[in-house]
Write a structure and sequence with these properties.
By secondary structure, this protein is an alpha/beta fold. It contains eleven helices and eight strands. It has an eight-stranded parallel beta barrel with strand order 1-2-3-4-5-6-7-8, surrounded by six helices. Helix 6 links the parallel strand 5 and strand 6. The structure holds erythose-4-phosphate. The site of erythose-4-phosphate (E4P) has 12 residues, from helix 7.
Length: about 220
């Protein structure tokens, strides 16, 4: 499963890229709002850091067709190729996705809570569909099961559309995506580091070190013996 960073904080993005294999960055209006800065200034900084070949997903704000089309044009012209326009899957959103694909834009169909939305977005030609795993649980449905249904629909229909699972609040939700074979997942740094931070592992590593020092001397490693 490909891993994407769900953040607009350049420090957090840098850290994720330093330690992990990352395939791009996703943002949304709420994530951009946390920066308190001009959105294009932040997004250009992210683009410069991840490079022109990496995927950057940027959401439109407009909810009307003409507004979505105009925003998509500006976002793509400012941020360059491999920028995916995130369009929420509403009725108007579907019309825009269809038209934007016809014009050659990369599209991430977002705000997906149901497999029906994902199916229609795939039909419209979206490159990615972004189901909101945790938010689906928030409304009393099974987020992992919905992504599995979506994956099955895409496979059964032989769509080129890929899953970009989003909205995670715990480790289990993320690993469940890898288990069901989701193509990619975008994870916020707050959840991301929980995948590896584990005091039990740290204690085990520390005990190995101490045992070796008992054999040799404090501070010794395999370089010194
Ligand atoms: C992707 O960028 C999505 O917008 C994001 O994962 C949603 O996350 P949230 O449900 O924590 O707001």
């Amino acid at each position: 499963m490909k891993f994407i960073v769900d953040s607009a904080d350049i420090g957090q993005i840098r850290e994720a890229y330093e330690y992990l294999v990352c395939e791009g960055v996703t943002t949304n209006p709420s994530i951009l709002a946390k920066s308190g800065r001009n959105p294009y200034e932040v997004l250009k900084e992210i683009r410069a850091f991840i490079g022109k070949d990496a995927d950057l997903h940027v959401q439109v704000i407009s909810t009307d067709y003409d507004g979505i089309m105009a925003e998509a044009e500006k976002i793509a012209s400012v941020l360059g190729k491999n920028t995916f326009i995130k369009v929420p899957v509403t009725k108007v959103g579907l019309k825009a996705i269809k038209a934007l694909k016809a014009k050659g834009y990369g599209i991430t169909a977002t705000a997906i809570y149901t497999s029906a939305q994902a199916y229609l977005a795939a039909q419209a030609g979206a490159d990615f569909v972004a189901p909101y795993v945790n938010r689906i649980y928030d409304i009393g449905n099974d987020g992992v099961a919905v992504v599995e249904q979506i994956q099955n629909i895409l496979d059964a229909g032989n769509y080129k559309t890929k899953v970009l699972a989003a909205s995670f609040k715990n480790v289990g939700q993320v690993t469940a995506m890898a288990e069901i074979g989701a193509y990619s997942a975008t994870v916020q740094p707050e959840v991301l580091w929980k995948l590896i931070n584990n005091p039990t592992v740290d204690a085990a590593v520390e005990a190995f070190k101490k045992d070796f020092e008992t054999l040799t001397a404090k501070g010794k490693t395999m370089l010194d013996v």
